[in-house]
Prior knowledge:
By secondary structure, the chain is mostly helical. It has 6 helices and 3 strands; from the N terminus they run βαααβαααβ.
Amino acid sequence: MQSPNPPQSPPDVPAGLLRRLGAVLYDAMLLLAVLMIATAAFLPLTGGEALDPDAHPALEFVYRAVLVLLIVGYFGIFWTRRGQTLGMASWRLRIERDDGTTLGWRDTALRLGAAVLSWLPFGLGYLWIAIDPQRRAWHDRLSGTRILLVPKGTGRG
């Protein structure tokens, strides 16, 4: 009697455009809430007024640095530990490097910078997913990363 074949892992399926946009929207709402809380924390320092770069140039610099750190931190913490943000987990997506390993902080910074380039020309770099044979956006290619669909019932996503 032959032994049964060991269970094989499902093939890597690249995520499509609509699913990825859903995750982007979900993460954008979560991140917007975090950024609003950070902004509110600065209001007591300006008497409840919006930051004026002419009146508070140093505070304006610190404020912008905090926002950038929060954005990089949000993605970096999730991508380097789980390979998924909360939005990606909700849409059953996972990010990994081309070699299948989890992203590092350098990968995160590179990907976020490249994502800005994808959004700048009216989102063309992101819409590229719809015509790319591997469903990759410009920033996927530039950063050496890919977004995959997590199969149902795998415990991730």
